[in-house]
UniProtKB/TrEMBL annotation:
Family: Belongs to the LEA type 1 family.
Disordered: region residues: 1-105
Source organism of the structure: Dioscorea zingiberensis
UniProt-listed InterPro entries: LEA_1 (IPR005513)
Composition bias type Basic and acidic residues, residue spans: 1-70
GO BP field: embryo development ending in seed dormancy
Superkingdom to which the source organism belongs: Eukaryota
The protein, known as: Uncharacterized protein
Length: 105
């Protein structure tokens, strides 16, 4: 269960990282489109690379945080085996139909 929680948290972090990468690429395209010379185009490209690198660093940091959180609480998500439902004592009619609510007991 803990591994599943980590995977879900990692997927959320990955989605955030992909969003940041996409916005960096869109910003790069906008910067290149509005640039007036090569230096401004290079600056837009470098800014986009920096934003993508920052997004990847944040992703790795969040994944490390998820691992440390799960390592601090091992086995806390297990369901105790002592809380089972008691066995039902149902008597079935000898003839006729079962009521709709008790059909599959």
């Amino acid at each position: 269960m803990q591994g599943a929680k980590e995977k879900v948290k990692d997927m959320g972090s990955t989605a955030k990282e992909k969003t940041k990468e996409f916005s960096a690429k869109a910003g790069e395209k906008a910067g290149k489109a509005t640039a007036r010379n090569k230096a401004e185009k290079e600056m837009a490209k470098e800014n986009a690379k920096a934003k993508e690198a920052e997004a990847k660093a944040e992703l790795h940091q969040e994944k490390a945080d998820h691992r440390s959180d799960s390592a601090m609480h091992p086995g806390t998500t297990r369901v105790p085996l002592t809380h089972h439902r008691p066995a039902a004592t149902t008597t079935y009619p000898t003839a006729g139909h079962l009521p709709a609510g008790e059909k599959y007991i």
